[in-house]
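Lab notebook, bench 4. The sequencing result for the construct came back, and we need a structural model before the next group meeting so we can plan mutations. Quick request posted to the team channel:

Model the 3D structure of this chain.
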Amino acid sequence: MAGHSKWANIQHRKGRQDEKRGKIWTRIIREITVAARQGGPDPAANPRLRLAVDKAKAANMPADRIKYNIDKASGNLEGVNYEEIRYEGYGLGGAAIIVDTMTDNHVRTVAEVRHILSKNGGNLGTSGSVAFQFKHCGQLLFAPGTSEEKVMEVALEAGAEDIITDEEGTIEVITPPGDFEAVKEALEKAGLVAEMAEVTMRAETPIALAGEDAEKMQKLLDALEDQDDVQAVYHNAELDLEG
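Done. Here's the predicted structure in token form:
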């Protein structure tokens, strides 16, 4: 059971992110670029840019590099134009996958995403084919042993939509996307720092995969995340890599 638990999956994902620190910087820079171009260069007046800057700081990106990329995106410097494109598809066992990309060449990107999926036992779907299985929301995850009562009190007061505790004691706080920052800030002021906190596409109907299927699914997810134009990969697979 522990192999495909929410907490085990969280820890595995955090480890993978730490291994890919350089690639994470590239993705954050793209996010800063698009956010600044769409909503302006002032993080105080641009929530999307503010979240991107927070991600950059959490990834230990230097302040001068953050400022440089905001300036670059705002037209003070020459830059590349990125287009945001979402792809939907399927992995092992019919698991649903959403791939968010930022690209300066959508023909190249869709070809590479399709190739990665088909090579690893998945396939590309049409727009809307799996998105209904996910919820766009803010998500904060707290380690087992965190006070459920305290999290619930602070989070609900700050505007959280739901608090879910699983059998292992992992606490999940769900917020509307627009209330994510306020809830996160309130929790942190109360001394409650989440292991993971992000605005995400949360799977509503998880699919458990074990053994060889889990290993193949992980290989597929890794290949997608390693693709240069990919910003985020969302899926509904709960992987038991020990099964």
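Helices lie at 6-19, 21-39, 47-58, 63-73, 106-119, 148-158, 180-189, 211-226.
Will bring this to the meeting.
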